[in-house]
Design a protein that fits this description.
- The chain has about 130 residues and is an alpha+beta fold.
- It has one domain (about 5-120).
- The protein is about 45% helix and about 10% strand.
- It has a 4-stranded mixed sheet with strand order 2-1-3-4.
- The protein is globular, with a radius of gyration of 14 Å.
- The relative contact order is 0.18.
Length: about 130
């Protein structure tokens, strides 16, 4: 059984990898980080399709949060001022806006700083039509 949460991200995406490296250096959330491509997704209870679609936060108990909720959990776990930011993401109206902002960034991650054309998400048709 895991004792620390796991942050699962897209290791093929330069933008995602850059963000995770920043998180490890600056935020220090006290979790394991792993690209979904190298993770044992079955033991985490995560479908590959979901891992391809959004960043995931998997608790030691096996509860999975995705997208903006995963970011909020990561920040809450980091403590200090980061936890305040995480808590704000769980409160209205930010709770309502955060998922849309996350999807907008994810859909354009190849255009973000550090992003490359390889960072682009696969078309929705190849992901089963959208959100898992």
């Amino acid at each position: 059984m895991r004792t620390r949460p796991v942050l699962v991200y897209d290791g093929d995406c330069a933008f995602c990898t850059t963000c995770v490296r920043f998180i490890e250096r600056r935020i220090k959330p006290g979790c394991e980080t792993t690209p979904w491509q190298f993770a044992d997704l079955g033991s985490l209870g995560v479908a590959q399709e979901r891992a391809e679609y959004e960043v995931l936060w998997v608790t030691p108990a096996g509860v999975t949060y995705g997208g903006a909720q995963a970011v909020a959990k990561l920040l809450l776990n980091a403590g200090g001022a980061w936890a305040v930011a995480g808590a704000l993401l769980t409160l209205a109206p930010l709770r309502w806006v955060a998922p849309g902002a996350y999807r907008l960034i994810a859909a354009n991650r190849e255009r973000m700083p550090g992003g490359t054309p390889a960072c682009a998400l696969p078309p929705a048709a190849t992901r089963g039509g959208g959100r898992p």
